[in-house]
Structure of Thioredoxin reductase:
Amino acid sequence: MAENLIILGSGCAGLTAAIYAARANLNPLVLEGSQPGGQLTTTSEVENFPGFPEGIDGFQLMDNMRKQAARFGARFEVALVEDADVESDPITLKTASKEYETRSLVIATGASPRLLGVPGEKEMYGGKGVTTCATCDGAFYRDMDVVVVGGGDSACEEALFLTRFCSKVYLIHRRDELRASPIMAERAVSHEKIEMVWNTVVEGIVPDENGLVTGINVRHRENGEAQTIDCKGVFIAIGHIPNTAPFQGKLAMDDEGYLIPEGTSNVLTSAPRVYVAGDCADHVYRQAITAAGMGCQAAIEAERALGVI
């Protein structure tokens, strides 16, 4: 028998959708994917989610949301969807070992940040000095020197945001000019707190005795000169990869693979009763609270659609 609603992903978007859908008696099934809890589970402290004036550990926040969804009847399975037929009725989802059928679907699979792939990066990612979100973590680096890696609009925005807190921001780019729009590039290059590090690649991130970032090893691409830049935080801003591969060619996406919502709901995809929430559609804000808001919208839209079938 087909499920009423399957939710793909268990980050803020997916779990909020699960809470709303479960309270609406849809008995939703959440397929948690390869990272149960999403990216927030790697964040040591979340200070900008409403309702927690002292902040909350990222893993604890997601665990709380999961328990809340389960309390109202949401069910959970660890499964990674590899293929989907969104035009069939019911919608069909395939994993390596199982096939699911559902009357409606919420895709909340998120996006994975592109990383540099250098020594020390993964070891210090999430709470130890390496991050991909200045809005989330910038305030932790007040009066400290930090590094931003990248050359597009996102990198410039991250660097400019960090100047509100940090004493100095090194913006490292592998070329001799930024890829960012002219106005963003000008703002970054001319800012008194931002020092441009041109034609330079990152070769490794240096930890202290406690495993926290203490510097970054770089090399100039033209003259081969190596140096270590002392810093307390490394913000990687070289883009994200939306986790939408199973829906390539089946749902409307932009050139980067982000799902494109249609209509007035802001969460309906190009297929009926298939909704999207969170970072797999939103490449502008990428915040826990905006993902949660989209999850709420998607669940309400699914409930309304199921009510008239």
About this structure: The chain has a mean pLDDT of 94. DSSP finds six helices and 18 strands in the chain. The radius of gyration is 21 Å.
